[in-house]
């Protein structure tokens, strides 16, 4: 049985897999090796290197493990039509992303950027206009693993959490829930609006100038899901007009963010270069999911973690 | 009954006190009015303006409310010998201070200062060397209201909390406790060392070069208690020698921090200008405690909140 990796884990991570599964033939490559793929049973990929055409000759392929959460670049139709099992690493982002989101919120609330500027100028100034997170209200768009973890941490800080998704059905760590259709009337209540939405037909351009106008002038807007949930030009307009106080953006319509884009120089924008999910624990956790699943699979079980319906894409 | 304030609350805060206590004669001044003090029954002060000599002529004074937590600048002996009741606003710092402490920790863990520098340079760089707070260990020196609140929040982030005080007796939100005498042997376990200790004979210069040498090279040291708990010159040496990774300092031996002090320019030091307890809610909360206590006092009760034994100083 041949397991092809299209990325290169650390030596000890490779060794640990080979020791645990002596029956498997692991082939680690720094990118997708199309020759090896033709005879591989399993492909482990970050999900950005596989095309439909690759699958035509990958006649042995039974399982693709995507070691990330995003599946937008995967040839889902071909995977579905060839009955290849698809799993991903959903859930491993929740700890680093929730920590990043809370980090940015507290940094703004406690005026850390101003404090840093004062330090660079050698200026002892206690007038920082800090405010408290305690007692504020957060609206969380997207209440999966990450959104719920953000909600749990915010609740620990005494924040009221309102979740928002398609159905409006209750989710963990949310004090209240609203469906997308009630978004506009809920926006004025929120001190912090956090999108962790994936890119789908329903979420694309969910947030336009109209929505930003409904937010508090003191609101912090955060996009940590996908760039196209926001009409970027309209967010820019709202920020220039100071409809809201701050935007913290981890994702953009085009990444990397273009040189010379106004966001780089705006005092009310934090540019986080799609970095919020980074973690020294990332590969370890993704390989942990894969390793557990491989044990199940070798035992003939179909009780694998994070199986994706390729037809639906989630 | 005459109540003298040596600071000036907002108009609505003044009005609300006057309406609640029509029997009292409130006199609000921007600094200590020594003439009015001679006939005042109650003094409400931030605790930095009263000398022993003032008390000699304040013959009517029965109660001093200090609208902060620090009592170092109060003439405690004279207050004790004249049997004046002393209360303070202990506890109101816990929310803003704990939020500030977590803000700084997450900011460092998530490399927000590097991210901000990259943004100023228009540089999209995902190599930020971020790490996770989850799974780390924090040693909290001083486990009163603030330390316990910091412990509670850290535990929510999956941090192991070790408290440290004189007795080593268990305190809320601590996974373990050690007494000061076991400090040195506990320091190597901690990823984050946070001092929220007051200035007393026992805590003065508790942390010297020797203690910093025991910490992890990757450790973040935070002083949010009192400056003289640390031998500042020895901390400076430890930082220059990179015995530890970061110091976040809200308090200093001399405040404001002197112009030209090396801390201002060090990349591994965050200078927080004694700002961590600031909050828009500060005066509201302090006056809340005072107002409740005044009701009790007018009813002849001695069940007041935060009564201080002036002889002991706490």
From TrEMBL, chains A, B:
Gene3D superfamilies: NAD(P)-binding Rossmann-like Domain. It comes from Psychrobacillus soli. Belongs to the D-isomer specific 2-hydroxyacid dehydrogenase family. It comes from the Bacteria. Residues 20-302 form the D-isomer specific 2-hydroxyacid dehydrogenase catalytic domain. One of its GO terms (molecular function) is NAD binding. Pfam families: 2-Hacid_dh, 2-Hacid_dh_C. Signal peptide: none annotated. Residues 102-275 form the D-isomer specific 2-hydroxyacid dehydrogenase NAD-binding domain. Keywords: NAD, Oxidoreductase. Transmembrane segments: none annotated. This is D-2-hydroxyacid dehydrogenase.
